[in-house]
Design a protein that fits this description.
Length: 103
């Protein structure tokens, strides 16, 4: 796995915003893991802020659209997980300030 390629994927993920909150999914702490296998397939483990997130499909579609712009990536697999559950503790400092969440 190329660290540079994983870093590039994270850069693209920072362009994927949660439409309800207007903050990218990396700063929201929704991305749990990014990996690239030997076939240059991106494997992304993520969660949503709630199990019933009505925009989950839209977020995943936007994620795939952004990451597919990386020429080296052949395929993208997104695994949505619920454990560990998302909490406000996963928010970056930037997201906490933007959302008015105390540190």
């Amino acid at each position: 796995m190329s660290k540079e390629l994983v870093d590039h994927i994270y850069e693209m993920l920072e362009e994927v915003n949660d439409p309800e909150l207007g903050i990218d999914i990396v700063n929201l702490g929704l991305i749990y893991e990014v990996d690239v296998d030997k076939g240059n397939n991106a494997l992304i483990k993520m969660t949503m802020t709630s199990m019933g997130c009505p925009l989950a499909g839209e977020i995943v579609a936007d994620l795939k659209n952004k990451v597919s712009k990386i020429e080296e990536i052949n395929d993208i697999h997104v695994d949505i997980v619920w454990s560990p559950p998302w909490s406000k503790d996963r928010l970056s400092r930037y997201a906490k300030i933007a959302l008015g969440v105390p540190n």
